[in-house]
Amino acid sequence: MTLERLPGLAAQYAGRGVVGFGLSNDERRGDALSFAKAFQIAERAGLLAVPHGGELRGPDSVWSCLHGLKARRLGHGVRSVEDPQLVAHLAEAGVTLEVCPSSNVSLGLFGSLADVPVRQLFDAGVPISLAADDPLLFGSRLLTQYEAARTVYGFGDAQLAELARMSVRGSAAPDDVRRELLADIDTWLAAPPRVSAEGAADQHGLGLQLDAEARQHTGADLGGERQQVRR
């Protein structure tokens, strides 16, 4: 399929199940700017530009995606931290990064989960959509990433809730779906931990209703199931 035909096909189904247009694979094997024409076709159809960048290559690949492909959301982007100017730009422009800690470690980008700059990006104000990348390939689900946010990166309840909100706000979901998901997050945050008959606090989960409809509209790896982040 040609570079013109694929985005044309995506554009044909814009608003009928197709919400974004992406670009993935090994960034070191090519130049994102080679796909600029394809992204222009997708942009004219109103599709969200979601290329990969800043994973296997550094900040230069992120800049290429931003300027050449007009990316409004980026797969990975974790190596943006190597360029403080880029980090500031991402925060100011509100470009969401799909950060996949377990995948980054599995691919050898970082030596451990603690090395993945989730906290650094969050504290800099960069929108983050915490994701599992490819659960079947890496064996890690979305729940594991949220647990790492608490246990490895030191996120409290309010910050976990904001991570979840960022995923929703950075999605292509319709307004009604966004409102429902954001309300669920607020409900979780406001609810006190349940207490058992013995007086011990039960673990209480952040319920993310990640059903097929939400997954269809977000364009993110949200697991397709109801998952619980423990409190």
Overall description:
There is one protein chain. The chain has helices at residues 5-12, 36-44, 59-68, 84-93, 101-106, 118-123, 135-138, 142-151, 157-169, 175-190, 212-218; strands at 20-23, 48-53, 73-76, 96-99, 128-130, 205-208, 227-230. The radius of gyration is 18 Å and the shape is globular. Helices cover 43% and strands 13% of the residues. With 231 residues, it is of the alpha/beta class. Helix 9 packs antiparallel against helix 10 (175-190). Helix 4 (84-93) links the parallel strand 3 (73-76) and strand 4 (96-99). Strands 1-2-3-4-5 form a five-stranded parallel β-sheet. A two-stranded antiparallel ribbon has the order 6-7.
Defining traits:
231 residues, two-stranded antiparallel ribbon, alpha/beta, 13% strand, five-stranded parallel β-sheet, 7 strands
Can you summarize this structure?
It is built from 11 helices and 7 strands.
Strand segment tally: 7
Unreliable residue stretches: 198-204, 207-227
Q: How would you describe the shape? A: globular
Task: Please tell me the overall pLDDT.
Answer: 84
Order of helices and strands: HEHEHEHEHHEHHHHEHE
Biggest sheet layout: 5 strands, parallel
Q: Which structural class is indicated by helix and strand composition?
A: alpha/beta
Strand content: 5-15%
Order of strands across the main sheet: 1-2-3-4-5
Number of helices: 11
Radius of gyration: 18 Å
Helix content: 40-55%
